[in-house]
Design brief:
The chain has about 290 residues and is α/β, with parallel strands linked by helices. The chain folds into two domains: about 190 residues, Periplasmic binding protein-like II (D-Maltodextrin-Binding Protein, domain 2), CATH 3.40.190; about 90 residues, 3-Layer(aba) Sandwich (D-Maltodextrin-Binding Protein, domain 2), CATH 3.40.190. The protein contains 13 helices and ten strands. The chain starts with a strand and ends with a helix. This is ABC-type nitrate/sulfonate/bicarbonate transport system substrate-binding protein. Keywords: Signal.
C-alpha cells in the first residue's frame, strides 16, 4: 500500500477510495495529515512517505534544499486552488495589509508566491510586511482567528468559517491569476522505479474517478458529502477537477513567471525539469491494452 502525506484528503483520492470500498477492494493508499510542507519534504526525503499531495510550487524550492533534489510532479489533481486571501475584520483592501503580519505555510515556497504576488500587485513592497510561518491551512485559520496575524490564504471550508466570524475575503487566487494550478502529486524520481506499479495502479483509479465525476458531478458531490464534507464544499471540489491528470504547462509557467516578477529563485525552471509524465504515459498505454 502506498503511503501519502497531505493537508486534507484530495477529492479524487476520496472518490477512488469510495469506489474501491463499494467493490470490497483493499485501499491502494494510506494517507496521513500534515501540518506543513516542511514536514512533507522531510517525509519524502527520508522515505517515510511515498508521495505528497501539495502545492506544485513546492517542488521548485525542495529541489534547491540540501537533500536528494529529485522531487517531481507526476500528476495534477485540481485545476484550481479555491484559495482566497482572507483578512481580519476591518481590513477590506489588500493595500491595508501594508505593515501587517501574513500567516503562511512556508516563507519561500508554495502558495506564498501567489500571496506575495497579490501584495506586490497592490503596491506593497517585499519589505512592507512580515511573513510568519504558521503551518497548514487549518493551523493558519486557527491562528488568524486567534488574532496572530492580519491575513492569510485559506481554502474551503475555512473561508466560509472565517466569513461567519466577520473576516473578509479580499482576493480569489483563481480569478486573479487564471490558470494558477491546484495541488499535484509529488514523488522522488529516485523512487519511481520502486514505486512504479503501485503508483500506476493508484493513478489509474484516480483517472477512473475523475472520469466518473465529470460524467456525473452531482453523484460525485454526494459521495464526497457522504464522506463528511459540507455539500457546498463537495460540489466546489468536484468543479475543481480537471479534464486530465496531466500537470498544466500553463500552470507551471504561471509559477515561474510569478517567481521571475518577484525576483525569486526558480524563474528558469522548465516544465520538463519539474514534471515527470512517465506514470501518466503508462496509464495511457494500459488503457489501450484494456
Amino acid at each position: 500500500m502506498l503511503k501519502a502525506i497531505w493537508f486534507v484528503p484530495p477529492a479524487l483520492a476520496t472518490l477512488a477510495a469510495q469506489a474501491a470500498a463499494a467493490k470490497g477492494q483493499t485501499p491502494l493508499v494510506q494517507g496521513v495529515a500534515t501540518s506543513s510542507s516542511d514536514e512533507q519534504f522531510e517525509a519524502l526525503r527520508d522515505g517515510r512517505q511515498d508521495l505528497a499531495i501539495t502545492a506544485m510550487d513546492n517542488v521548485i524550492m525542495w529541489n534547491r534544499r540540501a537533500g536528494p533534489a529529485d522531487f517531481r510532479i507526476v500528476a495534477q489533481l485540481e485545476t484550481t486552488t479555491g484559495l482566497k486571501l482572507v483578512a481580519r475584520p476591518g481590513l477590506t483592501r489588500v493595500s491595508a495589509l501594508a505593515g501587517g503580519k501574513l500567516l503562511v505555510d512556508s516563507a519561500v515556497n508554495g502558495f506564498v508566491v501567489a500571496l506575495r504576488t497579490m501584495l506586490a500587485d497592490a503596491g506593497i513592497a517585499a519589505d512592507g510586511y512580515t511573513l510568519v510561518e504558521a503551518g497548514g491551512v487549518r493551523e493558519r485559520f486557527e491562528r488568524l482567528i486567534g488574532g496572530e496575524g492580519n491575513a492569510t490564504l485559506l481554502g474551503p471550508p475555512f473561508i466560509g468559517l472565517a466569513n461567519e466570524q466577520g473576516f473578509n475575503a479580499l482576493v480569489e487566487a483563481d480569478r486573479a491569476y487564471p490558470g494558477f494550478p491546484g495541488q499535484g502529486v509529488v514523488v522522488r524520481a529516485g523512487r519511481l522505479a520502486q514505486l512504479h506499479d503501485p503508483l500506476v495502479e493508484w493513478l489509474t483509479a484516480l483517472e477512473a474517478a475523475r472520469s466518473r465525476a465529470k460524467q456525473d458531478p452531482a453523484q460525485a458531490a454526494r459521495t464526497l458529502a457522504d464522506a463528511g464534507l459540507a455539500h457546498q464544499v463537495a460540489a466546489a471540489m468536484v468543479v475543481a477537477l480537471g479534464g486530465t491528470l496531466e500537470p498544466s504547462p500553463v500552470g507551471i509557467r504561471i509559477l515561474t513567471e510569478q517567481r521571475r516578477a518577484l525576483g525569486l529563485p526558480g524563474e528558469d525552471d522548465t516544465y520538463d525539469k519539474l514534471v515527470d509524465l512517465s506514470l501518466l504515459n503508462a496509464i495511457g498505454a494500459r488503457a489501450v491494452v484494456i
